[in-house]
Automatic annotation (TrEMBL), chains A, B:
Organism for this UniProt entry: Xaviernesmea oryzae
Upper classification of the organism: Bacteria, Pseudomonadati, Pseudomonadota, Alphaproteobacteria, Hyphomicrobiales
HTH lacI-type domain ranges (all copies): 9-63
Entry keyword set: DNA-binding, Repressor, Transcription, Transcription regulation
SMART domains for this protein: HTH_LACI
UniProt name for this protein: LacI family transcriptional regulator
Gene3D superfamilies assigned: 3.40.50.2300, lambda repressor-like DNA-binding domains (1.10.260.40)
InterPro entries from the UniProt entry: HTH_LacI, LacI/GalR-like_sensor, Lambda_DNA-bd_dom_sf, Peripla_BP_I
Length: 333, 333
DNA sequence: ACCAGTTGATAAAAGCTTTTAGCAAAAAAT
DNA sequence: ATTTTTTGCTAAAAGCTTTTATCAACTGGT
């Protein structure tokens, strides 16, 4: 009936079992101070035997390092946040650091609540991530006593910031088309007030020449359809290739082209942006696209955070991380 | 140069500023013990003024409740995990409880590492979530001293478990079709060894009659195409409606029907499963589908965890939470 | 005026670890 | 043989909070 809870072993248990003082046990386990090798091994063996694991709370209270960080995101959907979070964890887990994930839904009250809980728990730092780089956080993170890193979000110039290199990604896409001999390249993309859209469009113009203008619209399949309709209606030569600002747009474009009897990539080549697998692998043909390497982005943010919490210098300001090209079949085999 | 870090205020600071002892300050702030109302107000006012917030680590060390829990997931993609996590947080944040998110990628080593970090940090409980309900966790969570709750995953019979009610969801879908007058209903779904697929198929057979057999296949758009091809080739009457096991399959089905000149919903109605917005809103026409209410699922798991950590009784075993029907246009306006 | 009970506060212990300072014994140096 | 140094270990403090036990002062009853 009265099942006594299996109390966790403390360093006191180790000390007693090894017949030494608590301090010696601590020294032996942490390999600091002056300890007889024999004693050290004995203590370690016994600790291992009885399954001792130090209480991180007590340790943190003293060392002022909690080995936990907070990730604050405004993404409810998860497509961007989870790969990034996985990357962050990957960088941290080997160092015993865990990450609190706080989904704020972009609600300032919720964000404040989460932030307070994090600070109370003495997190060593905070990583802020967003669904869109050029969006201000729902709370002020600039006056905290702990380091803040921004991932897929832009913070103050003093904070380390990691975002995908949109220009480089666009270059990858357009250059791929050029390399394969496509010339008249059109760019169909999302909302013009997204910084990412601007950067990609700019690079596109530099590389592809600006004979054809950039078509800004929504970030949806529907806009992909609509854009193709516009292009066909205004007549003139068809483009040889289309660089789309997102995989969703690309999917709309591909479907619209097929509806009109045009073959991809024979008549028109298409390249997307995002490598959102559920879309990119299921278009007909599968979509060649740009991957923003979100996991790597998260990993880098995690590593930066690790350095910061150790007091090591970390270069402030924006670091743009390279995207990669994922070749499928929409630009020819 | 030597910027002194703004040390966090402790209860000691409050006590000193209020001219009382630490114990009195603690009593006043927590409203326990015997305290003169005047003193209590004074202490609270001063605490507020100097911005005192108790150190959760120290508190937890004593009370044995860390006000943090761990979420272990094997989902790297985030589609299921993030909405659920958001739901969990939503249930917990008002109680000052935060959640560590651990993405294991289904790697036992990684899972073990995460688990140890969580236990060291004295989490009050663990929620395990998966991308598929009938999959065993990469680590053994049955012998822990803390409560474990399963969400979108099946644990031991003694553990509270929350999963979507697949049968009810399927009923919702099929009944919707029947209510709208569709009779010959076909079911195209995913892999037969998924428990979810079996449950949905069973319900479908009960409701729609089993004249037409269930078509099991992959969980992909491609299979949706392929399945339509199979149906058309084998000839006979076309179904009046198709109940698809996932939105991805539904999308393939809709596209395949259109390719063959069949109109949705005029010639064939289609209903999906998942309410994965990027798909369901972009099919032509937009897809009527079943939403598994993942956020609510997470919220329920969070609430159960909350009760467990407080020692309140929580019903063990599987709780199937209702899905909802999201009507768009693929079954008529 | 004395005793019992109440009130409002406090000192100290507890929770678990790390770290500082110190002590006794052994080793090395004079 | 005595002093200095080194070695191996330990007691105690510190980190911040909550809680238990205690204490002094006051209230009210006889």
């Amino acid at each position: 009936m009265s099942e006594e809870p299996p109390r966790r072993r403390t360093i006191r248990d180790v000390a007693k079992a090894a017949g030494v003082s608590i301090s010696t046990a601590s020294n032996a386990l942490n390999g600091i101070g002056r300890t007889n090798p024999e004693t050290r091994e004995k203590v370690r063996r016994i600790a291992e035997q009885i399954g001792f694991r130090p209480n991180a709370l007590a340790r943190s209270l003293l060392t002022k390092r909690s080995h936990s960080i907070g990730i604050i995101t405004n993404d409810t959907y998860g497509r961007l946040t989870l790969p990034m979070t996985a990357g962050v964890s990957e960088a941290l887990v080997d160092h015993g650091v865990s990450a609190f994930l706080c989904a704020t839904n972009n609600d300032p009250r919720l964000a404040q609540l989460h932030l307070e809980a994090l600070l109370d728990k003495q997190v060593d730092g905070i990583i802020f991530t967003a669904t869109r780089a050029d969006l201000t956080p729902p709370i002020d993170l600039t006056r905290l006593a702990i380091p803040v890193v921004y991932a897929f979000a832009i913070g103050p110039p003093t904070a380390p910031t990691f975002i995908p290199d949109d220009a480089q990604g666009a270059r990858l896409a357009v250059q791929h088309l050029l390399d394969r001999g496509y010339r008249r390249i059109l760019h169909i993309t999302g909302l013009e007030d997204y910084l990412a859209a601007q950067l990609r469009a700019e690079t596109y113009r530099d590389l592809a020449g600006a004979e054809l203008d950039v078509l800004f619209g929504e970030w949806t399949e529907e806009w992909g359809h609509e854009a193709v309709r516009l292009v066909m209606e205004r007549g003139g030569d068809l483009p040889e290739a289309i660089f789309c600002g997102s995989d969703e747009i690309a999917r709309g474009v591909i479907d619209a082209l097929r509806d009109r009897g045009l073959k991809v990539p024979e008549d028109v080549a298409v390249v997307g942006f995002d490598n959102w697998r559920v879309i990119a692998t299921q278009t007909r043909p599968p979509l060649t696209t740009i991957d923003m390497e979100l996991k790597e982005l998260g990993r880098r943010a995690g590593l930066a955070m690790l350095d910061l919490t150790r007091g090591l210098p970390v270069e402030p300001g924006i670091t743009r991380l390279p995207c990669s090209l994922v070749v499928r079949r929409s630009c020819g085999a």
